[in-house]
Amino acid sequence: MDRKKKTGVTSLTDREQEILQLIWNGMKNREIGTRLKISVKTVEAHRANMMKKLRVSNAAQLLKAAIEEGFIRVRRA
Fold first, then answer.
1. Topology of the domain comprising 14-69
2. pTM
3. Are the beta carbons of 6 and 65 closer than 8 angstroms?
4. In sequence order, what DSSP letters do the residues of 13-55 get, joined into one string?
5. Which sequence spans correspond to the domains of the chain?
């Protein structure tokens, strides 16, 4: 199933989706790196790749675009 929407993104890698979820949960790059046993530089590279794919320039825009594209589902109480 092609998830191509308004930004033209078809997909994020499994690792990018995993990191995106951790960003959504409020974790910092260092915490994500420790949790996933990868370097902070690798986390930063994944974040930069996601931002490029979603055509955004900061974390708030990244999360907003990820919600709009369906990569993050917001649960409402």
1. Arc Repressor Mutant, subunit A (1.10.10)
2. 0.82
3. no
4. -HHHHHHHHHHHTT--HHHHHHHHT--HHHHHHHHHHHHHHHT
5. 14-69
